[in-house]
């Protein structure tokens, strides 16, 4: 079961930037407007044309036992903003959701997080049960235009340009506990 917590919004303004930052979308370095270069102060990044005034929301999902809709060799979880699909794909073992606080994805399985209604994902923070699974998750990422880092049991994925879907093809077993998705 995925429990979706009420999304909350956060905005960044030029006043909060006291040191030069690098735009996570276009790599422009500037202290203005959360790291984007905006020389004419129109609220649009001069390099990547990202709307700097767009509100960014966070939504948290926590895995619970035996949830989602199982259809043949695919399991789907859904919220108002996102669809999560896990598929057995090329794995000899189906995705396991009977654990109380996580689900298991096996080597050869696929998994995706997709925004509904045009939501663009800017960042995903995934918590796994052990650090070895974080490394597997990073190695399994197949989406272009994103970077992923593992730190202990946390995987952080940042989209260079906002993307609609984050996709994985499991290289080994991994066990996922929760997601925090930042989106516009």
Verbal overview:
It is a single chain. The protein is mostly beta strands and 184 residues long. The chain has one helix at 131-140; strands spanning 2-4, 8-10, 21-22, 29-30, 56-63, 69-71, 74-78, 82-87, 103-105, 110-115, 121-128, 146-151, 154-163, 165-169, 174-183. Strands 1, 2, 5, 9, 11, 12, 13 and 15 form an 8-stranded antiparallel β-sheet that branches. Strands 6-7-8-10-14 form a 5-stranded antiparallel β-sheet, with no helix packed on it. The relative contact order is 0.19. Residues 1-6, 8-22 and 28-34 have low confidence and may be disordered.
Topology:
Elements lengths: L1 E3 L3 E3 L10 E2 L6 E2 L25 E8 L5 E3 L2 E5 L3 E6 L15 E3 L4 E6 L5 E8 L2 H10 L5 E6 L2 E10 L1 E5 L4 E10 L1
Antiparallel strand pairs: 1-5, 2-5, 3-4, 5-15, 6-7, 7-8, 8-10, 9-15, 10-14, 11-13, 11-15, 12-13
Total DSSP helices: 1
Mean of the pLDDT scores?
Answer: 75
Low-confidence stretches: 1-6, 8-22, 28-34
The chain-level structural class is: mainly beta
Task: Give the amount of beta strand, in percent.
Answer: 35-45%
In short:
The chain is mainly beta and about 180 residues long. The chain has 1 helix and 15 strands.
Features:
15 strands; mainly beta; 1 helix; disordered N terminus; five-stranded antiparallel β-sheet; 184 residues
